[in-house]
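Readers of this paper often ask what the protein records in our data store actually look like. Such a record has a labelled line for the sequence and another for the backbone structure tokens. Nothing more is needed to write down the fold, since each code stands for a local backbone conformation. The remainder of this section carries one protein's record, kept here as part of the documentation.
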Amino acid sequence: MVPGVLWCLILLSVVTWALLVIKLIQYGRARALDGRFRRNFWAADSLEQGESVSDTASGPMAEIAKAGFAVITGRDIAPGNRDLAHQIDKGERLERTLKQQIERERRSLEGGLAILASFGSTAPFIGLFGTVWGIMEALVNIGESGATGLEAVAGPVGHALIATGLGIAVAVPAVLIYNFLVRRLKVGTHSMNDFASDFYALCQQGGFRIEGATLGSRRETPKANATVGQKTHATA
């Protein structure tokens, strides 16, 4: 039983470090795609160009923009529900859609974190189970053999304690990696919320219509020709 517990803990450790590598690649790719998309989107001269940029881009923020443009252009409404959908304020539909898309992107980035949390909380108990089982077997063997010397007790008990030590060695990195990735996830979520707020403000200034709303240098214009310059606040 004890060797089986040790191999189980080794497997958990391998999975933990593999998840770290996978999540770092995923977060790094998402951050690079979002950075490229933000630069191209806010460099566009109009919302029409911004829509074209989002259609050809990928990444969490690009998906948020695509969902928002679908509301503005009415593509989010099924043909059979147009009368009912038009009774809902477009601004409310846009706000709800942006929140839903952010939640979908967050869940995608969150994948695997529950496994790390489970490893961090259960690995010590798995190791303790191996230790208890090993000590129990050692005591049974000692009782059957009748040996009472220190050598007969210390060897099996010391071998059993390896499981507890390995369980702790697996749990500590899992918890640290989990906290690190959760922090990265929160930063990414804040960035998506900031972009969604900027996108909503831009659409609101354009009357939730694509016609006339422009991006680029800031200048005062009527609402129908609302202009938004660079982002009103820095995103992470």
